[in-house]
Amino acid sequence: MADIQDRNPGSGKFLDTVERLGNALPDPVFIFIGIIGILVGVSVCGAAAGWSAINPVSGEALVAQSLLSEANIQKLFMEMPKTYTSFTPLGLALTIMLGAGIAERSGLFSTLLRGSLAGVPKHYLTPIVFLVGMLTTHAIDAGYLVYVPLAAVIYASAGRHPVLGLVVGFSGAAVGLSGNLIPGQYDVLILGITEIGARLIVPSWTMNPLGNWWFSLAVATLFTGLAWVIVEKVLAPRLGPWTGGVTSGELAATVVTATERRGLQMAGLAALAVIGGFAALTFWPGYSPFLDAAATGGQRLLPLFRSLPAGLFLLFVATGWAYGASTGSIRSHRDVVEMMVKGLEGMLPYLVLIFFAAHFVAMFTWSNLGPIAAILGAEQLRALNAPPALLLPLLATMSAWL
Q: Over the Cα atoms of the chain, what is R_g?
């Protein structure tokens, strides 16, 4: 694509300001440290003031506890390794990323992304590129590194401004972290956070990884419509048509070769094998470890839902290995191990951040401030007698602050 030389000075100054403000923010690790410091101060004040609430489920009286009390200081230091390693999202993320590293570095994700935009109708380019962008979040880094520039080339080849492709592809990939059409590893990760939060009120409460999917699906539907309108009615008229064309090399980068198509076929067979294996372990007569025979209703499938992180790990390993063996990107088992190692290398910043996040969540639980705030907030919402159309956004706002 031809270089885009024009630049709006006003928008450039605005973006420079945004960049400076963003760079002025401390590292997320120190943001968590600051929040922990604030939490300690609030817990001391709450304990001194006698903040309390009655658990509506158990009838237990919950009283704010100072995080500087002897018991909590002892717990902080004695249980520090346990607090870190038992944080649910940590194990889920590492398990899934072991397999995702193979699928990504074998080239499977990249080929899937390139093949997903083949033959897209011009009139439906924006919603389809946006929707596929959401799905790229399941492809880890390939979503941003491969798909966003690919979307620009696709737009340019259709005679539309490539900047639109960059915006739509990037926006879809970003939205995919909170809303998606199909469940995946992020639903499993959100499960850990949701379950920890719910257990502040009901310690024995449990759910399955698909519990957040309805919300995720609603977000995906809403934002796709908004993106379509904003891009076509606001952005596209300002940028105008594209006359720069694309180079043969850029077009070639969007084509899936015969070798890659064969690799996709092998990956598809591997995916069917994994899915079939899980189905057999769930419904095979007389041998169904993924089915709780003592439970009733949807709870019977709880072992299956709890096995989804392992299932995603096996799915990524099987499909990535099958694709790599077919295309030549994997020549021996050593390549597989190396891809696993490379996949976890990108998780090192996450491992540092999650140490402080885990302690914040644990200390929030020890202080009893979480359930007290949730119970008192729910009582205030109930007292408002607000209609459901207003109650839902109020509840979402309160949950976001908590």
A: 25
Question: What sign does the CA torsion over 18, 21, 23, 29 have?
Answer: negative
Q: What pLDDT was estimated at residue 5?
A: 44
What residues does each domain of the chain span? 89-107+256-344, 119-254
Tell me: the pLDDT tens digits for 80-114?
999 999 988 888 888 888 898 898 899 898 888 77
Query: Is-contact 176 135, C-beta < 8 A?
Result: yes
Q: What is the token pair recorded at 40?
A: 């300690």
Question: What is the token pair recorded at 350?
Answer: 């996450």
- DSSP-assigned states of every residue in 161-172: -HHHHHHHHHHH
Query: Strand, helix or coil at 386?
Result: coil
DSSP per-residue string spanning 303-317? HHHHTHHHHHHHHHH
36-87 confidence digits (pLDDT tens): 999 999 999 999 999 998 877 677 888 999 999 999 999 999 999 999 999 8
φ, ψ dihedrals at 91, nearest 5°: -65, -40
Regarding pTM above 0.90, the answer is no
Q: Where are the beta strands (DSSP E) in 136-266?
A: none
| Separation CA 225–CA 165 (nearest Å) | 16
Distance CA 322, CA 185 (A): 20
